[in-house]
Amino acid sequence: MAIHLTKESKVIVQGMTGAVGMLHTRRMLAAGTDVVGGVNPRKAGRTVDFDDRAVPVFGSVRDAMDATGADVTVVFVPPAFTKAAVIDAADAGIGLAVVITEGVPVHDSVVFLSYARQRGTRVIGPNCPGLASPGQSSAGIIPADITKPGRIGLVSKSGTLTYQLMYELRDIGFSTCVGIGGDPVVGTTHIDCLAAFEDDPDTELVVLIGEIGGDAEERAAAYIERSVTKPVVAYIAGFTAPEGKTMGHAGAIVSGSSGTAQAKKAALEAVGVRVGRTPTETARLVIERLGK
Q1: Helix segments in 200-278, DSSP class H
Q2: Active-site positions?
Q3: What is the four-CA torsion angle of 225, 154, 37, 79, rounded to 10 degrees?
Q4: Helix (H) / strand (E) containing 290
Q5: What pLDDT digit, counting tens, does each position of 223-272 carry?
Q6: Residue 266: CA atoms inside 13 Å, Cβ hemisphere, count?
Q7: Model confidence pTM above 0.85
Q8: How far lies 226's CA from each of 271, 272, 290, in Å?
Q9: Rounded to whole angstroms, how far apart are CA atoms 118 and 83?
Q10: How many CA atoms lie within 13 A of 105 on its CB side?
Q11: To which H or E segment does residue 153 belong?
């Protein structure tokens, strides 16, 4: 199995006809994703050829869903139009919206995340790499060929660290890898993914990647203590970050012990999570825990 995205998922791409949307639609198709349509109100009725597959373009998410049965949308639109795109998706009642766009105004994110939540649409992102269930489907920009299907679940704030851990643990493989994004406000949290992986019978262990700033990792630690029975291994980016500097895309300022990698490591280790100081050490801890 997997979480949020499987081989049965039918994916549409908002912004598919743009250069970035076309590039990653082609990559998603190559990964086996069932991309059934694109959305661009100005180009509705056209089709876009991707090698041996012609993908139709619709004027709205509702039109695309009615015609194709889509249940996932990937959003590749400029920041100024992201709020409208997600609201269009939520109004249509789609189950999952994966928002790749970087630079979305925080106020816009607050508005569309609240709107989507009220209408039952899960949002991953914004400013995220998306998610991939290796061997099944990929929605976003995660490279599909750096790992294989397996029994590790991965949830990460960082895109590049997602890729690195996927590669480091490629011989074991993953059920689903989720990049939740590093903006101050995101639609899906570490805790949401921990809960989903806990319920997934094919996920044996969870890797959690965090970073300095904020308290998301401390809240995840409290949730793990209460509700997670599966082993969790973590990595926190920023052990060498200088105090008082804004670091990383979380935009957080580390002050005193609050928000530091060491404080987050301590909170996670206090509830039994093993924490690596580098991605490679984190991969080694996973291998040791699985007895591989």
Answers
A1: 216-227, 261-269
A2: 249
A3: 80
A4: helix 279-290
A5: 999 999 999 999 999 765 665 655 555 444 454 455 788 999 999 999 99
A6: 7
A7: yes
A8: 9, 12, 22
A9: 15
A10: 7
A11: strand 149-156
